[in-house]
Amino acid sequence: AIYKPDQQLAVERAEALKGLEPYLVVSNTDESVLNNFSPSNFRLRDWVVEQFNEIFSIGVISFQDKQKIDEFNVEYVVLVEGNRLGKKVLMSDLFTPKTAYDFILKKAEHVGWIDLNQLRTLNIDQYIKPNLEIDQIKTDQAIEVIINDVMLTSGMVQLGEKIIGRGEVVTEEKYQMLVSLKRAMGKEEIYNNDNI
């Protein structure tokens, strides 16, 4: 077998990992936290709770988990609810606590009866907690499957096939054949020593 160079393997694995779909566990929003949200303006309270419900139904992920996932440059994530896989969603659709807060403020700008200064004094950002977190076990398993699917070799050298002759220029392809031969001989040597 002709083994791929480590650099080529790294590039191919990184490319393959772009297809990764990390798993996120959905936790129920703590309703008691929202019950503690009780401004004197009931109309505003109902509007804000409606926004909270919309945000949490889409999903809020911690900034740290978002950064971990962003390292893989993924497009989709899979939501896991209880023991069943949920839906596949665009990573870009999910909120962090900060983007959720900004979303509510931006939306409030277009609601004529809302006083933005009053809304800001309610400290609604304190009520926006992540309801999604990385399922590290399932995500690591998905990463392992993707990495293991990348072929380590790029061809075969047949028994008796000449790799290089004296005075020939060593091309990258020939060099990789020689490195692969050395690697295979090292494995054979270990195998033979184990059988002694």
Could you explain the architecture of this structure?
It contains eight helices and four strands; from the N terminus they run αβαααββααβαα. It is α+β, with helices and mostly antiparallel strands and 196 residues long. The protein has a four-stranded mixed β-sheet with strand order 3-2-1-4. β2 and β3 form a beta hairpin. The C terminus is likely disordered.
What are the salient characteristics of this protein?
49% helix; 8 helices; alpha+beta; elongated; four-stranded mixed beta sheet
Outline:
With 196 residues, this protein is α+β, with helices and mostly antiparallel strands. It is 49% helix and 10% strand.
Layout of secondary structure:
Elements: H1 6-17, E1 23-26, H2 31-35, H3 42-58, H4 63-70, E2 76-81, E3 84-90, H5 97-108, H6 116-121, E4 132-134, H7 136-149, H8 172-194
Parallel strand pairs: 1-2
Antiparallel strand pairs: 1-4, 2-3
Q: Classify the beta-strand content into a percent band.
A: 5-15%
**Rounded average pLDDT:** 83
Helix content: 40-55%
Query: What is the radius of gyration computed over CA atoms, rounded to a whole number of angstroms?
Result: 27 Å
| Topology as a string of helices (H) and strands (E) | HEHHHEEHHEHH
Termini separation: 25 Å
Oligomer: single chain
